[in-house]
What does this fold into?
Amino acid sequence: MKFIFTLIILLLFSWSEVVASTVNLEKGWKFKAGDNLTWAKPDVDDSKWESISTGQSWESQGHENYDGFGWYRIRMVIPSSLKESAYLKDSLQFILGKVDDDDQFYLNGVFIGQNNSKHQTSDSAFRNGNGFYLPERKYTISTNHPDILWDKENIIAVRIFDQGGGGGMYAGIPSISMADISQYLVIDKRADFYKFEGNYIKKTFVVRNTSNVVLNGNLSIAVKLEESRKEISIADSDIDLKSGEIKEFPVSFDVSNEPTKVQFTFKHRDSNLIINDVDESPYILTPKLSETPAINGARVVGVRPNKIFLFTIPATGLCPITFDAKGLPDGLILDKKTGIITGKVAKQGEYKVTLTAKNIKGEASNILTIKVGTQIMLTPPMGWNSWNCWGLSVDEEKVLQSAKIFKEKGLINHGWTYINIDDGWQAGRNADGEIVPNKNFTHVRTLSDSLHQMGLKFGIYSSPGPLTCGGYTGSYRHEIQDAKTYAKWGVDYLKYDWCSYATIAKDRSLPELMKPYLLMNKGLMQNDRDIVYSLCQYGMGDVWKWGAGIGGNLWRTTGDIGDMWEALSAIGFSQTQNADYAGPGHWNDPDMLTVGWVGWGPNLHPSRLTANEQYTHISLWCLLSAPLLIGCDVSRLDDFTLNLLTNDEVIAIDQDPLGKQAIPVYKSGNIQIWLKELEDGSKAIGIFNLGADPEKVTVHLSDLGFKGVHTIRDIWQQKDIGEFKGTYETTVSNHGVKFLKLTAK
Ligand code: GLA
It folds into this structure.
């Protein structure tokens, strides 16, 4: 009895603690679509506003397809006990959860702050930037703020602007709490980035005291290898940080070939509070390249009769390598030193060409099938695009530099071919109506010639609307003329982006969605060269069902990607209903890669995806037979990013000639298994863990259709793991993947 009584007292005590430390604002929100700045005021009568949940978008709560402004309001008491029970008493924080896209936050009618791309208050600037719907909104104010009404009713008003798609406060639980030490002792993981030095990896972490008081305690840093369960202690030190003070912690350890975590534990001496944090370090799975030759990349290539052909044999091995190609159709010639095959073939047909690459260490040969017919792009395109790194600050030098690095760092030897300029190259039109490049590009034809001489291909970007998404000149009313200009410039690839065509289309009916794309296709087909046609309209009207029919070689299936897990996983793991529509010549495009240094503008940063997430990104895209367009500054490729982009067995899954797109064959909790059928009868699977902790997985092989004994090969590590029948057990790291190939014995 006494025990039960004590338990009740304890429960009551801990319950009152919970109540005292957080005010939960999950329920009680009111909503009104539209915009009026007076709605921030406390005395607005919102009794007739509708009730709304903050856990899902306004679209899913009766406002389908509504884009634009909307206001949320809630009334609540802020108890002074929050402050009284806190260790640090200076700041109160309002957590709103996630908001799509931009928000302004008002307390009792007073503007407190906002989150948008420009950080300005004028309405015209109230527009979102890339991936801006992802971060959680938190507004922190001083407990001395005159507009907090302690122990009385307060009114929060949130003004939101949704630029498209889902809108509103859509995820997370809004709440009010005091900012505690974990908010003030900042372990800055992005002040520096991992650098590779030989077999070592190095990074400096910065610990910062942003509070007004001295923070003292013990900080330990340890590096943990997840699979071998090794732990290396890096530091264990007492720290005593004055207000505003920072301390650097350089960390250096061996590069590993398994998921690796740098773990921080800070024990605050005065309050006994423990802060745990973790940083995931890059680890390298791709084995070192062999010196003996290997021929990589696509094994089948398509070209239309009498159209310019250019193919560089992607081969690795000690240089110099000499090439041979037996069985080339009439009209094609090989440069034996560079491995570049060029020319034109008049006769339709399927030509099996035996390619050979030879050096002092040995020889490799492979069959390349050249299909001369109506189809091009028989395997997904591989290359680079300027958007995810340079955004609108792209220029000729950056494009040329990327091409040179494709050669220098050997990317071209793994099949990376296209160098594509995205938005931001156009100046307007000359007196003849011809599109002209802006001052950042001196001579487009010269640029494309240089790329072709290197054995690379050249891509460009436009919109069927009057303006591109970045506000540059689009092709509207100049479609056929632009197609001709592209051919004149030697363009091999066009990304055609809906953007301002939204203002031209009468509605979103299929004929209206198809119309501008059909028109440009007509122009492209009149050219003397094949131009890969990339439709970009974010999946509208289930484009995968009709994209190929109107000449598209690939089409975007979603909105823009960002370099965050939420964006990557939301896009990657939703590619299911379009799977049947991918195949040789026509591919679903879940957007470009966000590994390496990205930034969508002049200032770049290392991808915010962890190492595990980047392995997931590349593995999933290869399983999906997705176009692989590197979106980073290739002049900053480090060992880790190169390992991601130059693993030939991984790339071979993407470039498999069968051209099937993977489908999910198992989903349970955080685990998903995606399976792709390959031309040789074997299957590639990705075992993905979408959860925040590593998980043990038992794969029941027969449930996935694998009967009898199968050899399982680790694709990243390029090694056989063994022969399995019945089940296969493994551990998959948080947000990570095991990428395997299964072949029947
Ligand atoms: C859209 C596209 C992006 C990029 C930009 C350029 O947002 O989806 O991939 O091309 O336009 O402005």
Notes: The two ends are 66 Å apart (CA to CA). The longest strand covers residues 215-225. Residues 1-19, 118-122 have pLDDT under 50 and may be disordered. The domain at 183-281 is CATH 2.60.40.2360 (Immunoglobulin-like).
